[in-house]
Specification:
It is found in: Golgi apparatus membrane; Golgi apparatus, Golgi stack membrane. Belongs to the glycosyltransferase 10 family. Its EC number is 2.4.1.-. It contains eleven helices and 15 strands. By secondary structure, it is α/β, with parallel strands linked by helices. It has two domains: 139 residues, Rossmann fold, CATH 3.40.50; 166 residues, Rossmann fold. Helix 3 packs across helix 7. The longest helix is centred in the N-terminal third of the chain and has 49 residues. It is globular, with a radius of gyration of 28 Å. The protein starts with a helix and ends with a helix.
Length: 407
Amino acid sequence: MKYYRTIKRHLCYKYLLSKCRWLCFITTLSVFYIFIRCYSFTSELTFMNSFLETEKCWNFNYDDQIPKLILFWTQTYMRINISLEYWNQKFNDKTCPYHQCEVIFDRSKLCQSSALVFHLRDIDLNYLPQHRSAKQRFVLYSMEPPHLNPKFVANMNNYFNWTATYRQDSDMITSYVYWRKRKKILGQLAEQDYLKNRSAKVAWLVSNCYSHNHRELYSERLSKAINMTIVGKCSKTSSNICNKTIRECLDQLANDHSFYLAFENSFSKDYITEKYQHQIELKKMIPIVFETNHYNYQKLVIPNSYIDANKFDSPENLADYLKQLVLSKDKYNKYFQWQHEYEAYEDPTKTFLCEMCRKLWNKNEPKKVYNNIKKWLFEDANCQRWSSNKNGTIPIPIHESIVYRDP
């Protein structure tokens, strides 16, 4: 009996010891995970708030350097196949007014570089330069709306000197849309029937099905009030897949669609992309955009070239207007009369690299640093979201734009 109790006690100790080992192991992992998370967050804050100009590169004479070197510190959308020839094309063919600049990828030439370009989507906090000469410029580069930029950027105060984005208040503007007023207004254009007996049908080529601004909720109601074709990943019909180029798909849709839904995936300051640009180049469907009150569409798009969905009380009211518009060929064609005064174009001298080169050669260019990048990049963007309950847009909280990720 005594032997039995000894064996039982031994097995009990062994069982408890096994449990303790597992408990200790799990506890250690948990503590380690918490430590890593805290250290990572603290490192972000420490790095961003302690960044100072140092003397590491101060001995280099940037003023006499020819050409000025522009170092792309990051890749662009993780694409290593974007060549130096591509970035330097406008310098090599001298289409930039200031062309004595050169784009490089070689990080070993950090101190010789007059500007460093950081594409926000590709920034790695573990591989960022810790030093900057007083004459160097660190450039924030992004073509994305606020919610698609990494959240840690909100803590990168006092790091960037210049910005290169689609925003009109950027230091260098990287616009998706190019148009201008003609030097000479054209006379009466040959009479053209843009409607071509098409009915009131709306086309939408889309792949982002769950957007930050809830545009899909608007389109869902619109599709119940008017004939609408959705092409792409968000289509519920397998046959509505276009395996051609975007331009070819739009051309195909224009055969029997008179309107195109050019809603962006973000209703934010100055964010207008190729969705509108494609339509003013094709000149076959009237683009339907969503103009929010906080940015001036009149400066960014051609007057009378689009229909603003936000001017209607509801998606159903917009559908009624579209149905009435196709009943009158003259009224429909008025949305294409802008061609008398304006034209779509691509101007290589307007690219941000041309402007950056000009600023680098300007000895009187004032010093600048963004000491509150969170305010400029996120708060000033004034992001909005469609609300079906209100039949309009509502502000998106700042913290949500910072941490949001598309599904």
